[in-house]
Design a protein that fits this description.
Blueprint (H helix, E strand, L loop, with lengths): L19 E5 L3 H13 L3 E5 L2 H10 L4 E5 L1 E2 L2 E2 L1 H5 L8 E6 L4 H9 L4 E4 L6 H28 L10 H17 L13
Parallel strand pairs: 1-2, 1-3, 3-6, 6-7
Antiparallel strand pairs: 4-5
Length: 191
C-alpha cells in the first residue's frame, strides 16, 4: 500500500482540460471520494453504480478514461469489455478487491490496460490513467513502425481507424468512377 507522501503526483498538465472519466463503482462512499478527487484534478466524471447505467452512459458518450469495478450488483464489470460497450479509444483501468486478480488479468486480456487492487490511495488513480495512456501510445507507435516499412507513402491509419480508412477508400473509389479513373489535382500557380 502506498502512502500519500510516497506516491508522486502527475503534473497538473498531464490531463487536457475536460478529459472525461466514466466511473463504474457500486460503493457510494468510495464513488463520491473518487469523483471529488478526479474533479479536483480537472477531469469531468460521470458515474454509474450498475452495469445497466454504465451501458447507457457508454452508448451516449465517449470517455477518455474508464475506472471500472469488477464486481457490481448486476454482474461483472468484465461484461462491458466483452460486449465491446467501451470504445477502443477509452483507456480502461479496472478495480478489484483482494482475491480478484484472476478477473483483473482477464480484464487486461479483454482490453483494460491497468488495474488497481482495493483498497488503494486516490492518488493512484491518475497515475493508473497515465500508465494506461502511455501503454496505448506506445502500442500505437509500434503499430506505426511495423506498418511503416510496408506502407510506403500511403497514409497510416492503424487498426483503431480502420472504419475511417474504409470510408476514405470508398470515397476515393467513387471519385475515380466519376472521373473515369483520373483524379484531377488542382495546384495553385504562382503569378
Amino acid at each position: 500500500r502506498f502512502t500519500h507522501s510516497s506516491l508522486p503526483m502527475p503534473p497538473p498538465s498531464s490531463f487536457s482540460n475536460g478529459s472525461s472519466v466514466l466511473l463504474v463503482e457500486d460503493d457510494a462512499v468510495l464513488s463520491r471520494r473518487i469523483v471529488a478527487f478526479l474533479e479536483a484534478e480537472g477531469l469531468t466524471v460521470n458515474s454509474a453504480k450498475k452495469l445497466a447505467e454504465a451501458r447507457h452512459l457508454l452508448a451516449v458518450e465517449r470517455y477518455d478514461y474508464a475506472l471500472v469495478d469488477l464486481h457490481l450488483p448486476d454482474g461483472l464489470g468484465l461484461a462491458l469489455l466483452r460486449e465491446g460497450a467501451v470504445s477502443e479509444n477509452t483507456n480502461v483501468v479496472v478495480m478489484t478487491a483482494y482475491g480478484g486478480i484472476a478477473d483483473a488479468v482477464e480484464a487486461m486480456r479483454l482490453g483494460a490496460s491497468d488495474f488497481l487492487t482495493k483498497p488503494f490511495d486516490l492518488e493512484a488513480v491518475p497515475l493508473a490513467f497515465l500508465r494506461s495512456r502511455a501503454k496505448r501510445c506506445a502500442a500505437r507507435r509500434e503499430e506505426q513502425r511495423s506498418a511503416g516499412s510496408s506502407a510506403g507513402t500511403e497514409l497510416f491509419f492503424g487498426e483503431s481507424l480502420a472504419a475511417i480508412r474504409e470510408k476514405l477508400n470508398q470515397l476515393i473509389e467513387a471519385e475515380r468512377r466519376l472521373t473515369g479513373g483520373c483524379i484531377e489535382r488542382v495546384i495553385p500557380a504562382r503569378s
